[in-house]
Design a protein that fits this description.
It is built from 32 helices and 33 strands. With 956 residues, it is α+β, with helices and mostly antiparallel strands. The N and C termini lie far apart (134 Å). Helix 17 packs antiparallel against helix 18. The strands form 7 sheets. It has an 8-stranded mixed β-barrel, surrounded by 4 helices.
Length: 956
């Protein structure tokens, strides 16, 4: 309070809050203003109603004048048409063209909007020939015509026809003589209405036939009056249809019709009146015949309240519809809504004068009450100021209490210290601090903050916190702290100075967050980012970093670094036979043995799968030797117990040496990988050093692989066929399909160079499917030519393992129409022995299709007789490695003889592969081999050459 006011208890009541919002108008002034405005609105509304009714009456008269003229003009057109009908009705003889012209031309001159008068003769089925002959005496070349695609052509169909016989004016319209009106769907529909009703009918809006012929724009509608045979009964629709002989038609130019009837009456010169005519029951732009002025305004929505207060709204449109034989014509006469200033000037004047007088009276009464309101407002303002001050003090107290409770209830440890260093004595701790540190408030208050870090004072975070305290600024750091029981925890500290009104710092607030779990999780993430989770070895990321460090060190000291890329041999067999859990156990054991085989300074990493990398910097005592690599291979080759079994695995190792084989980590790893693949090619279980020639071979392999991926799409594969000959008859009874790759750059690529690559990349599946389809198609072609040859097709192990193999074979047979009994599918021993139970099931499914099954390269794989009898096979093929030396080696000869005997005892046929000499052929024929295949009879050749061989009936 400033001494000039008095505190009033009622000032804080809700009723006074309304008066504090500012001055208000006195009730008397409002009452006078309300009464004056109501009277003004009533008087101006009455004047408005009178003015509106006057304008509406004037517009209605104008609209009715145009509606009446519109109706009369339509009646004139109908009357003219009926007068033509009278000519036909009263004439005892057929009406001639001259009579028709004499009657029609005056009507056309009198009514310019009538485009033409036409008489249509109704020609029934059977009357066409006689009618056309009669008309040709007057019009040579006359024929009944119809319109098709914008041209008049002779009419087709059984009839009837509604034919133009007279047309006025005829000049330039003579081409239309003979036109069939029934060929026009719009005209035919209107004509049927006229015939059935006996009344004049009208068609819809359409272009004239001659307009379409000559490219003239413009729309017409036609009026048509039916003609009946004189004296015929016309009591019902059926009678009228029997008596119908033709019709007279008036073509009305739609736009000219509307313009001329209003223009001749001078009704288009009236300003502000708009006329729109539509060939539809309602106004749509698509059916517009004529428009003078603007389109009609939309129909305003009805407002009952405004109509009761002000009377009817201003009339802006009058609509009228005329129906001509079922075709409506819709006329809309409209005007723009009258401007309020001109149409209702008197009403506006009354309204303005009444409002002005009402405002003057209200202002006078309000001025009288103004002084009392000013006094009252001054008292209320002083009272409000006192009330606000009291509320502010109460709010401040509540906020302090709330902050205190928030600090007490906070889940984060908080404490307050003094601003005096270096100890910064603790003055307050909250309950969360007690729970986090284990120190009760009584033991912590009065103690320095360094109690929390104990002897662990050399921390980077503590340096930041001390600097923030010394500079009296905010600070943030993560430090190691220790609980009362000595357990370490990670503490994220935020501190902020507390200043008084003069800006002086008198306290610091410390907020602590226990981030021990977050730190532990971050450490786990860092471990996972750098170490393989299965083996604990360095992963690709850490391996790259270690290798780069070793390269940098070796570069400075002029030493070497060996990078050994190790891949386990046949590891997939362990996964497939014992499961992935055993495979993982084996990888862990291998990782432990690798680490035990090298020095602590060396790095062992896992690249993924069964691939490992050793980074071996040069020893200080001398250069690296292969002894370390041999030691690693010996350790890996030791038996590994896993899943209750003992597994024996070997490894193939490729070695690249810095700086000879590369100066960076990527190059060294790539070259070591290339050398490892060379070790695989050399028979596995060995190591190979990188040589530049290996890189050239790898690049060539990559080029072949890239080209192979596009070979199928580019149709670069071809099939050659090697004949199979029956030794008893000497005739060719079958062929084996062998794939060849005709590359535009590499030339003819041997299967030995790309089949293995296709299997490794998975391309063997679509390639094998292509071979199967193409072979079946060629076999069907030979069958159609009269040569029912057996077609042998090889399947790879990957193809045989596909779940949809049977469906693929069925599709090839169905698409080609090849006889399944002539298809022989060849499989190697190793394929069918990989998973015996699954192989047996698949072979039985193939056998159900009716195909023949053969075991290829017999004797080079498992040669298990126990399983052989379980397979539903038909043919045994002896591998060429046994056939090659049967004429010179007693052992090979005995093996081949045993195979032939075994196959025959099992009911199988025998085919010997690789027969190249007469001696081999003689031995096989002597010991009852069924069939042979080899270069002695023919090398693999193209399909055309096989066809020539069949044609000449070549025999052995």
């Amino acid at each position: 309070m400033d001494g000039r006011g008095t505190s009033l208890h009622r000032s804080g009541q809700p009723g006074d809050k309304r008066r504090l919002q500012g001055p208000v108008v006195s009730r008397r002034a409002l009452l006078v203003l309300a009464i004056g405005i109501l009277l003004t609105l009533f008087l101006s509304g009455r004047v408005y109603r009178v003015e509106t009714e006057k304008h509406n009456a004037q517009f209605t008269r104008e609209a009715e004048l145009r509606v009446r003229l519109f109706d009369e003009s339509i009646d004139d057109a109908v009357t003219g048409l009926r007068s033509l009908n009278q000519l036909f009705a009263i004439s005892d003889t057929p009406v001639s063209r001259a009579q028709f012209r004499a009657m029609a031309m005056p009507l056309l001159k009198e009514h310019p909007y009538l485009r033409s008068f036409v008489f249509h003769r109704y020609v029934r089925p059977g009357e066409r020939r006689a009618y056309e002959a009669a008309m040709r005496t007057r019009h040579p070349g006359f024929t009944i015509k119809q319109e098709r695609e914008g041209r008049l052509v002779p009419a087709t169909g059984p009839g009837p026809w509604l034919v133009i016989e007279f047309f006025e004016p005829l000049p330039r319209n003579d081409l239309l003589l003979g036109y069939d009106g029934l060929s026009d769907p719009v005209h035919a529909l209107a004509a049927q209405r006229a015939i059935d009703s006996g009344m004049v009918a009208a068609s819809g809006l359409k272009p004239f036939v001659q307009s379409r012929q000559r490219g003239v724009e413009g729309k017409v509608f036609t009026l048509m009056a039916p003609l009946y045979r004189p004296g015929a009964p016309l009591d019902d629709v059926a009678a009228r249809r029997r008596a119908f002989i033709g019709e007279n038609v008036a073509g009305v130019h739609a736009h000219r019709f509307a313009r001329q009837i209003f223009e001749r009456a001078g009704l288009l010169a009236t300003a502000g009146i708009h006329i729109n005519v539509y060939a539809a029951p309602s106004p749509t732009e698509a059916a517009l015949l004529f428009r003078h002025g603007a389109p009609p305004p939309p129909v305003p929505g009805a407002s009952p309240l405004l109509e009761r207060l002000l009377g009817p709204a201003a009339l802006t449109r009058v609509s009228h519809t005329v129906d001509i034989g079922g075709t409506p014509l819709h006329l809309v006469v409209s005007r723009a809504p009258p401007a309020a200033g001109s149409a209702h000037a008197s009403a506006l004047l009354v309204l303005a004068a009444g409002i002005a007088l009402s405002l003057l009276g209200a202002a006078y009464l309000d001025a009288v009450a103004a002084r009392s309101r000013i006094i009252e407002r001054t008292v209320e303002e002083r009272t409000a100021q006192l009330h606000a001050r009291t509320c502010e003090l109460q709010r401040t107290a509540a906020e302090l209490q709330l902050r205190n409770r928030a600090i007490e209830a906070s889940a984060n440890a908080m404490f307050i210290t003094g601003a005096q260093g270096p100890d910064y004595i603790v003055e307050y701790v909250n309950p969360a601090f007690e729970r986090t540190t284990g120190y009760p408030s009584a033991e912590m208050v009065g103690k320095p903050t360094k109690l929390l870090v104990g002897a662990d004072v050399e921390q980077p975070g503590l340096i930041e916190l001390r600097a923030a305290l010394a500079a009296c600024r905010e600070g943030h750091a993560t430090v190691r702290c220790y609980r009362k029981d000595g357990a370490m925890y990670w503490n994220e500290v935020y501190l902020a100075p507390v200043r008084d009104e003069n800006g002086e710092v008198h306290h610091f607030v410390h907020v602590n967050y226990d981030v021990t779990e977050t730190k532990r999780y971050q450490e786990q993430l860092e471990y996972r980012a750098n170490f393989d989770p299965l083996t604990g070895l360095a992963n690709r990321n850490l391996l790259q970093d270690r290798l780069q460090q070793a390269i940098s060190y070796a570069s400075r000291t002029r030493r070497t670094v060996w990078v050994a890329f190790l891949d386990l041999d046949r590891f997939k067999f362990v996964n497939d036979s014992a499961g992935h859990s055993c495979g993982d156990m084996l990888l862990k054991v291998v990782a432990e043995r690798l680490q035990a085989s090298v020095r602590a300074a060396d790095t062992v990493g896992r690249m993924g799968g069964d691939e490992f990398v050793l980074v071996l910097p040069q020893y200080e005592t001398g250069p690296m030797t292969a002894a370390t690599i041999e030691k690693v291979m010996a350790q890996v080759a030791r038996p590994i117990p896993a899943g209750g079994k003992e597994f024996f695995v070997s490894c193939s190792i490729g070695i690249a040496v810095f700086p000879d084989d590369g100066s960076d980590s990527e190059t060294l790893l790539m070259h070591a990988d290339v050398a490892m693949y060379r070790a695989k090619e050399m028979g596995r279980n060995n190591y190979q050093f990188f040589e530049p020639a290996l890189n050239t071979r790898t690049q060539a392999r990559l080029r072949i692989e890239s080209a192979l991926r596009n070979a199928l799409a580019r149709d670069e594969f071809v099939l050659h066929y090697q004949p199979q000959v029956d030794l008893k008859t000497g005739r060719m009874i079958g062929v084996e399909a062998l794939i060849r790759w005709q590359h535009p750059e590499f030339g003819m690529v041997s299967p030995a160079e790309f089949i293995t690559l296709a299997e490794e990349t998975g391309l063997i599946v679509p390639i094998g499917a292509w071979v199967l389809r193409s072979a079946c198609a060629q076999g069907r072609a030979w069958q159609a030519a009269g040569y029912p040859l057996r077609m042998a097709v090889n399947l790879s192990g990957i193809q045989f393992a596909q779940h949809d193999l049977v469906q693929t074979v069925v599709a090839a047979l169905d698409d080609s129409g090849f006889d399944p009994a002539c298809l022989e599918i060849e499989l190697t021993e190793s394929i069918v022995m990989h998973d015996v139970e699954k192989s047996i099931a698949t072979l039985h499914q193939l056998k159900l299709l009716g195909v023949q099954l053969a075991v290829d390269d017999f004797g080079t794989g498992y040669s298990s007789l126990a399983y052989l009898k379980l397979f539903p096979i038909d043919v045994l093929k002896i591998d060429q490695s046994f056939v090659r030396d049967i004429a010179t080696s007693a052992d090979d000869a005995m093996i081949v003889l045993s195979m032939i005997s075994l196959a025959h005892n099992l009911g199988l046929k025998v085919i010997a592969e690789g027969v190249e000499t007469p001696e081999q052929l003689a031995y096989l024929r002597r010991h009852d081999c069924d069939e042979i295949q080899g270069n002695h009879f023919s090398r693999p050749i193209a399909a055309a050459a096989i066809g020539q061989m069949l044609h000449t009936e070549r025999c052995l």
